């Protein structure tokens, strides 16, 4: 069972939605190479233009930190100002129950 998770809130700059979605597809490719990342989902928020969320899960804190400090996490930091109207908000979560 996954024990740790991240929820990242993103708000695309107006007109940058297609660039954000292309960026998220590249992020997905990077995350596929992370053995400690159990699941990774990038979503758009219905009814919230430019709103996106990333949700990912991990077995342990070591894997979560490796993800944050790895290539995908660093790419988010590097491209944040270019793509997003506000800084990404990262929530560190502990999984209570999963299906």
What does this structure look like?
With 99 residues, the chain is an alpha+beta fold. The protein has a single domain, classed as Alpha-Beta Plaits. Helices cover 37% and strands 30% of the residues. The chain has three helices and four strands. The chain has helices at residues 17-31, 61-69, 71-83, and strands at residues 4-11, 37-44, 51-58, 89-94. A four-stranded antiparallel beta sheet has the order 2-3-1-4, covered by helices on one side. A hairpin with a 6-residue loop joins strand 2 (37-44) and strand 3. The chain is globular. The mean pLDDT is 97.
Strand order of the largest sheet: 2-3-1-4
CATH class: Alpha Beta
CATH architecture: 2-Layer Sandwich
Mean pLDDT: 97
Helical stretch tally = 3
Shape by Cα distribution: globular
Q: Please identify the oligomeric state.
A: single chain
Please tell me how large the radius of gyration is. Answer: 13 Å
Backbone structural class: alpha+beta
The share of residues in extended strands comes to: 25-35%
What is the CATH topology descriptor? Alpha-Beta Plaits
Helix-residue proportion? 25-40%
| Weakly predicted, low-confidence segments | none
The overall strand count is: 4
Summarize the biggest pleated sheet. Answer: 4 strands, antiparallel
Distance between the termini: 9 Å
Count of distinct structural domains: 1
N to C succession of SSEs: EHEEHHE
């Amino acid at each position: 069972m996954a024990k740790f998770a991240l929820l990242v809130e993103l708000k695309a700059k107006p007109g940058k939605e297609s660039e954000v979605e292309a960026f998220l597809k590249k992020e997905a490719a990077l995350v596929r190479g992370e053995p400690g990342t159990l699941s990774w989902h990038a979503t758009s928020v219905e009814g919230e233009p430019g709103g996106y969320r990333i949700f990912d899960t991990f077995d342990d804190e070591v894997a979560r930190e490796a993800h944050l400090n790895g290539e995908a996490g660093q790419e988010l930091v590097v491209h944040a100002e270019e793509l997003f109207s506000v800084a990404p908000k990262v929530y560190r979560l502990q999984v209570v129950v999963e299906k």
